[in-house]
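Exercise 7 asks you to align residues with tokens for two separate proteins.
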Amino acid sequence: MKEPSLGLEVHQNKFLAEGDRAMTAIVRVVSRGGEASAARTAAEVLMIDCSSSMRFPSTKIGEARRAAAAAIDVLPDGVRFAVIQGTDRAKTIYPAEDGLVTASERTRAEARAAVEHLAAVGGTAMGAWLAKARDLFDGVPDAVRHAILLTDGRNDSQTRADLMTVLNSCEGRFVCDARGIGDGWEPAELTQIGRVLRGNVDSVVEDDALAGDFRQLIESAMTKVLPEVRLRIGTMPFSRLRSIKQVFPDEYDLTDRCRAAGVREQELSLGSFASDETRDYQLILDLDPDLEPSFGQDRQLAWTELVPVPGAAVEEDALAIAGRWTRDPIPPTLIHPMVSKYAALADLGEALTAGGDAYAAGDRAGAERDWGRAVVLATAAGDEEILSRLSGSWRSSTRRTGWCGCGRTRPAATPCTSSSPRGFRKSLFRRKIGRCPREHRSPAPSAPRFHPPGRTSASAAEDRSARRFRDGHPGAAGPAPHRPPGAHPRGTGGLAVGVPKRPEHGGNRP
């Protein structure tokens, strides 16, 4: 079998103005090559919510059964798997005894027959389901371990503290994708599950779309070849890690998931990787206020490296995150294209979140304002996916039509007939948690989009946001201005030739 390789890149604008005491960089982790051998490396657990709320409407539990059967159907021969019925406790409905069973034509047929008997009765304790999955996965420590959790409700049979305790015990042991169906589930709970277990979280607006979604999740999981990849970050005596956030393909703040690995060293589990996969992480460093600027030369502010992974080759040694102070006012104002892109996506996510919160609170004018801003930002980014979702949520008011939060245009005097504001709000959940649009899902960074003066009303605000982002504030967005001759080339990521890969004298690495 071909051995996969792991690559690491650092992208940044290293130039700092005299008073700057923060640095933002994008760290890209890339896996290449390798072949997935599902029969020897994969394990899958399905967790299906069978609480009483799954009976309403009556089609919901039926669609959950069909989705579980669809996922089982695409499990390749040799994969170890199990199905959990989730209520206020966790019960393995297949196989009959606790443990994982090997996928074959016979076991898939038996599992499909078992899920046909799923009944909706009881409460909801997601922590119990996850703990059961963790225990099942313990029997296959060398496999790529993946789970799917489906729920339609809140974790009302368990405290948040209990759920967090279970999540902490599961972190790094398996990846879990979560899906919310209907309009009664709590986004914050599923987001926390996805964040800690490095999975994807989304809403399923139409019940009959669930089976196709489960099928795609299983097919994607079967491409994973590395059970876990870990990133190590080291700082200097004068710097500290303010935050680290995954920004591609899903957006999660992972700062509190870092674990101490030595003096001024931290490690972060990135989850499992496919044979050809790219993920980007935004790091923000704070520098000591009394640090003496080093004008005209590079200073290493931090370093990052991949922890060796059994069965994979690591292409690069530790890479530096550098800084260079300059009295030239132009270079520090330049925004690296990748930093600019992810800042714009964060701004779009904030607009969607604000619109959803305003809509849920009954503030239709606020929702119209925030979603209108999201339309402007999504249009500028060419984000067809989010524009499609927003097309069902926002319409400009005209003389003959009134705006309606349910996404319909209507005569100004006609009342809204939407019956499920919560359900509508959940339809935008993917972008609320920062799901990147399709055009941003390729490894190569895209060029920044330029906004000529006067093109949109948001141009001035975006320029201000770009300057704020340069000062280390996450979430601000803005186009990258034109680079003058002599500025760092895009391909170098702002790192000049000669910057040491290992920390400079006085660091905490040999």
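Second protein for Exercise 7:
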Amino acid sequence: MPHTFFAGGGQCGDLVRAYDWASTSIGPIATWPPSLRITVGTVLLSHVPMVLLWGEDGVMIYNDAYSVFAGGRHPQLLGSKVREGWPEVADFNDNVMRVGLTGGTLSYKNQELTLYRHGRPEQVWMNLDYSPVLGESSRPAGVLCILAETSERIAAERRRAEAEAAVRDSEERFRALVNASSDVVYRMNPDWTELRYLDGRGFLNDADGPSVSWLETYLFEEDRPRVLAAIGEAVRARSAFELEHRVRRADGSSGLIFSRAVPVLDDAGRLVEWFGAASDVTARDRAQAERIASDERLRAALDASDTGTFRWDIRTNALEWDEALDRLFGLTPGQTARSLDQFVAMVHPDDRAGVIARCQACAASGADFEMEFRVVYPDGSHRWLYDRGKTFRDPDGTPSYMAGACVDITERREAEGRLRASEAQLVRSNALLAAIMEAVPGVVYAKDLQGRMVALNRGTAELVGKPISEILGHTDLEFLDNRDQAEAVMANDWRIIAQGHADIVE
């Protein structure tokens, strides 16, 4: 016999109606109390990922949106006990059930969990809101979870951080043309099993040729596991290696360095080596570690948006929504918009026409609503919202009403804007560097501490009388025809480096 007290709900609605609930602690659908029926109907019609955990066992009933989140575990999760359905986070869900069934609520922002959704572990970030659902006795009989995955926003923030790091690297290269560096520099093969070169600057022993025993030479035994773990992660991710750790100094004593290395790729995108630099921070307060810890605390404290739900009666234009949506629109309880016109009035003027056009199209054709737009708060500020609604029709096919949900995506939009700005800054920095080298009249060049040319302008090439390609990467002895002149120039370079300040040479 079909169960008509809830209809629709997509694929999960069909699965719920066909499921053998008599095999669970909930019992057959025909015996379900009104509170359970109403809640299940609400869950199934929502386009926001929702899961109902009913009874002491936390038997799972969820909607289509949640089934997408569940991945390969759907549809086996349906009707299972939450502890058994998600065994890798059983302790987490035990606490959820304990708090929810005693009338408490829980809210997590950017909660990180390791889940096996596709047969392998993956890190997932989510906003989770848990609320008790009252049964017929007015006591909690289940727990309702509303979730929003924020993994993409976290990824956008990381891409922005990488772009900002690239800008910093470009700026460091520019400063290197002006100031001599006292950092240790080194090169590693792709998997870090061989040290190819290291100039210790007197702080560490030099390595002029390949060495496979560099761990024993430079690291104390008790520090090696931590360093190797950081190296392994950088190699797997092909991302920058950064670590502050102890080293064995040239005199055998213990020192502290901050080391950073970046992967070098060939034209085909293959990793060919790592180039790194290490600063002696032995006498310096470990401000870098505190900065990293501070950044982590800041990221953990960032609030993500709540989820608000609404129902728009297309025939009467009446609008109903919950308190969460009040908060998203900057309203206090009681200021809820009661009609579509009131809602549109709160949309940013630049986005209003698009929202109106989309609403009209949904009312006319029965299409679903999906859009990102800004709303203006009473204080004049604005926030970005993502709104999605499902249009339902009367039996004759006429669009009847729309039900949907809305989330705040301001942080994501701002992160994307900062990412674009960082990428533009990187382009400008590289262009500035090239322009400076060519714009300065006369002779402009830079050498490394071995006397090799690392940058030069056309004026330098014209003075030497050779193409830039024959000068770059070579010492004066290699590209000047007059050996005495070359030795004199290099001797003067070493004198300036030794005295530690700029000099004027006629």
